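Fold tokens
===========
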Amino acid sequence: MAFVALEPTPSPTAVPRNWFARNRPKPLNHLLTAKSIDSDDVDGFCESAQAFERGELSPRAAAGKTVALLFFQPSTRTRMGFEAATVALGAHSIGMEDMSGSRSNARSRESLEDCAAVVSRLCDAIVVRHHESGAAERMAVKSRKPIINAGDGWNEHPTQALIDIFALRRGLGTIRGKSIALGGDPRGRTVRSLIGLLRYESPREIVFCPPSHRDVPADIVSAIDQNQIRWRVVSDIKCALTDCAAIMMAPYDMSDIGEAAASGYVSPGETPASYIITPEKIELTGSKALLYHPLPRHDEIHPGCDDLPNAMYFEQVRLSKFMRMAVLDRMLCAS
């Protein structure tokens, strides 16, 4: 299959070594939603991430600064990814191992606003994940330092969307004119933020493959229609494997993202066979579709796919560190 090399290679659009010395992006006070990011921001973040990956960009503002990681929900990749990016920039991270035991909870009744007011006096930027939609925005009202939304309930996850765009561009060369599939639960915050950024990428169409009992949320449909992007729904993942250049998968049920960390919620059941990507389906369809996933994976992509050339989800994790470096570097410039 035709496949774009994963390692960065020089190209006519490669970032010159002195690009960032001549082009300082406008400061962002907070990064709460994909709606606050314009096309120049997306390009700038991707260029900065690529430059960090290549070792062509030295941290501008992060060295010696402190990033607070406030994760009121469990997290593996996002928490460790931001911590790794913080270390790589020469900064330091602080935070509690388990924010469910903090005073900012229903029992102790400290508000998120007060939490932000306190923590922002101890650090230079705050990365927050919370089960409540709008939590990051609430904290931004009282924070003296930049707030980065690392996922707030069903609402948004803008840094993951930036990672997804960076990884899609790397794998496909360009998203323009390509059919992009979104598999799994369409309600997720990653979907909402990714749709917000795909409007700048001019895909040919967006193909949803959701559970039969889940409609694509009305606000997501409205955002797609407003940007005049074609979209459709299919009921079998083989259709996406056949028709699309890339598939961004998600778990079949993502109800846990709106649950409190201590709720004990367990996602029910198994994914129906028609929604699972397997090596056999890839072989049967002759699919060249690149497979992405923000992770964690349940059973929607069979582990047998991991070593196929289609699989991009672990490379997506590797690239995420550099995008998070780009985000932190820019946000710390504003602090």
Notes: Confidence is low (pLDDT under 50) at residues 1-22.
